[in-house]
Amino acid sequence: MSTSITFSHDCIILDACCAITLYATKHMEAILQALPGGVAVATFVLDEEILRSNLQPFVEQGLIRTVSPDAESEENAFVNFAVELDDGEAVTGAIAMHRKWAIATDDRKAQRVFARHNPGVQLLSTPELVKHWADTHSQPIEVVREALQNIETQARYKPSAGHALHAWWQSIVHAS
User: Fold this and answer.
1) Confidence (pLDDT) at 3
2) What residues does 7 pair with on adjacent strands?
3) What sections of the chain are H helices per DSSP?
4) Among 20, 42, 129, 158, whose Cα sits 20 to 30 Å from the Cα of 148?
5) Does domain 11-126 have CATH number 3.40.190.170?
């Protein structure tokens, strides 16, 4: 099942859950390199929410840039999102909305809130990012299985049964 994601934005901003799950794969560098355009993480998320995931080497390599709200409109959007979401998701969504970036999040509530406030935003998830890496870089199934199992055990994430890539994920994890 090889499907391609069309990336419709210049940059993808990762929220905490996606940053943690990608870090857990132990293949984050390769996954980031496989993504077209830039990848960013809000400074707040990096400093306050993903303390066990050391993203600094990826920042130093230029694979991830750190960003903060830099306009009054982004600050206002952050405050509005913070009414419904935690601060990390709120700042991520505010930055993405005003810079017209894609958002990578696995949080379904955040996905609903972002889609409602910014219908044109591209929402991506860990399974989509990992599958893109696996497909575009012809990763052996054993390597992809290890990455997905690492996500399940280290980050405690599995896509829900309703996720479009749930069957793909399960077929990889349970392949013999």
Assistant:
1) 53
2) none
3) 16-24, 28-34, 43-48, 56-60, 72-82, 87-99, 108-117, 126-136, 141-150, 166-173
4) 42
5) no
Taking 50 as the pLDDT cut, the residues of the chain under it are 1-2
Compute φ and ψ for 40, nearest 5 degrees.
-135, 160
Q: What's the pLDDT score for residue 99?
A: 93
This model's pTM is above 0.90: yes
- CA-CA distance, 37 to 138, in Å (whole number)? 20
DSSP state of 111: H
163's tokens: 């996720």
Which tens digit of pLDDT belongs to each residue from 100-112?
Answer: 999 999 999 999 9
Residue spans per domain, the chain: 11-126
Contact in structure between 7 and 35 (CB atoms under 8 Å): yes
Residues in a beta bridge with 40: 13, 65
pLDDT of res. 176: 66
CA–CA separation, 84 and 82 (whole Å): 5
Dihedrals phi, psi of 13, to nearest 5 degrees: -105, 125
Say if residues 93 and 103 touch (Cβ distance below 8 Å).
yes
Q: Which two tokens stand for residue 122?
A: 């591209």
